[in-house]
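Re: export button greyed out
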Amino acid sequence: MARRCEEILDELVKLAEGGEAPDAASHLASCASCQKRLTEFTQILSAAQLPVFDAPTEVMMRAQSIMPTMPKRYTVRLLASSFSQAGARSVSQDFQLVVGTDETSLRVMYLKGADAWEVMGRAPSEGWTLLRDDFDEALDESGRFRFEAPDLGSTRFSLVNGEERLEIPNAEELLKE
Amino acid sequence: MANLDVSRDWDRLLNRCRQADSEAWNRLVESTQALVYSIPKRYGLGADDAADVFQTTFQALYKNLDRVLSGQALPKWLAVTASRECLRIKRIQSRTVGAEDLGLSLDEIVANEEETAESDAVAAESADDVRRAVGSLQERCRELLTALYLADETPYVEIAERLGMPIGAIGPTRARCLDKLRKILEQGGFFG
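Workaround output, generated via the alternate export path:
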């Protein structure tokens, strides 16, 4: 019986395609396994008949834009500073840090005021926005930024440009590195 | 059905989408676009309406990412959502025939539509499953079955020439390939 089942495989497909296969009729009538296979072939070919259409690229891209693109996030590390690490914990005067990733770097100045620290610097290129806990500010063509913080522990900020987000930890954390 | 490997991929993508991973979302849209876009086209909707159905379906998915429980449930969910939207558009387009003209209450119309959407979704999912399964076959079988059953009708002579096989070999080869396809679909639970 098993051999005969294999022999009529082609006939089963012909039947599933809507053709005729008289030679297979007697075997099929008595073989539940081939009847099942015929039903399954018919199901497959019926499903295959439904036309499939690819969405035009612009339609697909519109749907893809439903989820906002999240910029890649990098936390910068300390690359250099204007003083030795030995004095880092007792910072009481102006200093500069160079922070960055493998691909980009920026210089940040921390200026001691009477009752606050002024943080100044320049973004790596055009088109960046400065983000702080309580505000965000699109930077001008020069990419310069400036803000005040009550202490060095509150100097954390981010720079985003749609593709990247640079996280700059507060100066205390940077100086611990 | 959604074969097991694809379901697992969709599970991973769904999880990443729930974490607002836009790259995963892009891949999810890309891998289900034909399933969704084919539905309005099969309903005979024009390009603009088909694009609207597509967008509405994915907006609904985006809003309901937490409610689509698994990758396995995803294709059915998308297909039902798209079918419902198609039926809604068709209903609006044929407003000249009111519910009272058909002797049906609004509830009955909605119930009928829901039933239609379900069965159309099952058909759409099956068509998608078959195409994915064909895609997982080895090259020769994949090309032969695509030429015979999935592409526009092509004469045997042309298929034989393209695949470099004698015409007489097409019949038996396609039977063996179809049987391989049947086994793949069976493993994926296609036949229920």
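Chain B has nine helices and no strands. The button fix ships in the next patch.
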